[in-house]
Specification:
Layout: H1 2-18, H2 31-51, H3 59-77, H4 88-109, H5 115-134, H6 148-151, H7 154-166, H8 171-211, H9 216-221, H10 228-240, E1 244-247, E2 254-257
Antiparallel strand pairs: 1-2
Helix pairs in contact: 1-2, 2-3, 2-5, 3-4, 4-5, 8-10
């Protein structure tokens, strides 16, 4: 009977947190921060559900609940400086996550939590801590953005450039130069595309280097700026280059760096 109640409450967790989208977003363009907060929200709910079966007088129960709630406010404090290398809020959040992992293990060893549930929560906490570190390397941890109009007045620049190109020459000569400019722009576009590939490749390699052999979903979860399809294409490219090896098939596929 108790087991059925636990299953029902777990289902309610997903239904409640995924039922509707929240429009209030204090993270702005910081997608990594928003994702970290939503992960923490699920973990806090899970910790409260699991510790509901622990006696109220147990110190580890009270401390686990207190710290899990504090994790939410710590991540909110972190929203504007996720990329700062010496960020005090980042180190504070990491230390809190490590303490929560210890508390969950203690409650498990004391016989209050099952080993399966403890492993699930501690692994998720550890992934959250790792995600905070990896988010320092992604552009989606930015809270400042520029618009093209703020940096360049295209119309004035175009007129000035066209005037400089013409210089009293014939329209045919101007058209020839314009064609050359377009060709250069296309070349620059390819260079930007290649740079984008290199950035994604490096991101995927960093994940595999720090965590070892992983599945596609594990890799994608650490790269919020890229879709799973993009990560899959990048992995295929790295495999073709001989930098990554693949084992298993379809959803059981695993990827690792070639040493």
């Amino acid at each position: 009977m108790d087991e059925n109640k636990d299953v029902q409450r777990t289902n309610d967790l997903s239904k409640t947190l995924d039922a509707s989208s929240i429009r209030t977003n204090p993270f702005g363009r910081n997608i990594s921060g928003d994702r970290a907060y939503r992960r923490a929200e699920r973990l806090v709910a899970a910790i409260h559900i699991l510790t509901g079966h622990v006696p109220e007088h147990e110190p580890a129960r009270m401390e686990a609940r207190r710290l899990s709630v504090k994790l939410l406010s710590d991540l909110l404090d972190l929203r504007d400086e996720m990329r700062a290398p010496a960020s005090l809020p980042l180190h504070t959040a990491q230390a809190l996550i490590r303490e929560l992992i210890s508390l969950m293990r203690i409650l498990s060893l004391a016989g209050y939590l099952s080993l399966q549930n403890t492993n699930a929560v501690t692994e998720a906490l550890d992934e959250l801590g790792n995600f905070l570190v990896l988010s320092q390397r992604t552009g989606l941890s930015e809270s400042v953005s520029f618009s093209k109009d703020e940096l360049l007045d295209i119309r004035d620049g175009s007129v000035e450039h066209a005037s400089r190109i013409s210089g009293g020459r014939s329209p045919q000569e101007v058209l020839k130069d314009t064609a050359l400019i377009k060709d250069t722009s296309r070349t620059s576009g390819k260079s930007s595309s290649i740079a984008g590939f290199d950035t994604r490749s490096q991101a995927v390699i960093e994940i595999l280097k720090s965590q070892g052999e992983l599945g596609i979903k594990d890799i994608s979860s650490n790269l919020p700026e890229y879709s799973e399809k993009m990560v899959q294409r990048e992995l295929a490219r790295l495999i073709g280059q001989g930098r990554v090896k693949k084992s298993g098939f379809k959803r059981w596929s695993r990827y690792a760096l070639i040493q």
